Amino acid sequence: MAQNLSTVEHIYACFGQGDVPGILSKLSSDVSFFNAADPSVAPFGGTFKGKEGVAQFFTALGTTTQTTLFQTSNFVENGREVSNDVVHSGQVLANGQPFEVTAHFVWTFNEQGEVIDWTSSGDFSSLNAAMATS
């Protein structure tokens, strides 16, 4: 099962390089992505379905924010799940407002080693406030 952890690390490497197709290649066609940001202020908040939905998530994230820090830690692999903590800092492009998110991500895999679900939780209040003022 260490392959699932390796896949998550690969996805983070792709994210750091802006390689969305590389991320999508590790997802099942019916993947579900849930970002805990408030969808009423953040276009990348809420649930996104399928690879097309995940591509929309990353497009919205990349066109509205600039990441200055994306730090992962505390990886735990348990069966078909990998979880980890994240600190994500940056600024909202529309208004320059800074944000810092402290989150917990859970990645769930199918038998083929593809991500079928990604869920974030944590403190998104700084991001929500920064997005709301744009």
* Helical residues, percent: 25-40%
CATH class type? Alpha Beta
Q: What is the CATH topology?
A: Nuclear Transport Factor 2, Chain: A
From the N-terminal CA to the C-terminal CA, the straight-line distance is 43 Å
Question: What is the strand arrangement across the widest sheet?
Answer: 2-1-6-5-4-3
Domain count: the total is 1
Please describe the biggest sheet, giving its number of strands, its sense, and whether it closes into a barrel. Answer: 6 strands, mixed
Structural class: alpha+beta
Order of helices and strands: HHEEHEEEEH
Short description:
The protein has one domain (2-132): Roll (Nuclear Transport Factor 2, Chain: A), CATH 3.10.450.
Protein architecture, described:
The chain has a single domain, classed as Roll (Nuclear Transport Factor 2, Chain: A). 33% of the residues lie in helices and 45% in strands. It has four helices and six strands. A six-stranded mixed beta sheet has the order 2-1-6-5-4-3. A hairpin with a 5-residue loop joins strand 4 (81-92) and strand 5 (98-109). The termini are far apart. The mean pLDDT is 96.
